[in-house]
Specification:
It contains 4 helices and 5 strands, in the order βαβαβααββ. β4 and β5 form a beta hairpin. A 5-stranded mixed sheet has the order 2-1-3-4-5. The chain has about 160 residues and is an alpha/beta fold.
Length: about 160
């Protein structure tokens, strides 16, 4: 019988990231669960390329890479802004719209300026034309290949 995808107080959980800020955020979110959090970066695990075209695919890629490499349950996320008038863009490429992490870091104000410029170029002026959603997906992956996916979405209007 295979063990369930479950965590207990004191369990170690790999957060599939090389971003110290993201590890801190997960630490705050999971503080009440008494877990031993460690990042993929701290373990020296390779950072997989996010080649997926959906939030689920990218979260799975990262979580499974960390779980297999570490032999420990791993949690990964992927998230982004999807704007209806832009055909769902920036979507899984939201971070890329904010600049390159390799070239000095991302600036999300730059990304939002780009979204606004694209909305104006598309003639999206009314609230009905400026609808979108922020999507967040988490994948909890077991080293044996099993996983659990958790998705959330907040709909709104860009102002």
């Amino acid at each position: 019988m295979t063990p369930p995808l479950k965590l207990h107080s004191g369990d170690r959980l790999v957060i599939a990231t090389h971003n110290a800020g993201k590890l801190r955020e997960f630490g705050m979110l999971l503080a009440g669960f008494d877990l031993d959090l460690v990042s993929a970066g701290e373990l020296g695990l390779p950072e997989p390329e996010e080649t997926g075209t959906t939030f689920v695919e990218n979260a799975r890629l990262k979580a499974h890479a960390a779980a297999v490499a570490s032999g420990i349950l791993s949690l990964a996320d992927d998230s982004g802004l999807c704007v209806d008038a832009l055909g769902g863009d920036p979507g899984v490429y939201t971070a890329n719209w904010a600049g390159s992490a390799a070239n000095g870091g991302r600036d999300y104000m730059v990304g939002m300026r780009r979204v606004e410029d694209c909305l104006q170029a598309a003639g999206a002026a009314t609230p009905a034309q400026r609808r979108g959603s922020f999507n967040a997906t988490f994948c909890l992956a077991h080293p044996d290949g099993r996983d659990a996916i958790f998705e959330g979405k907040v709909e709104g209007t860009l102002v």
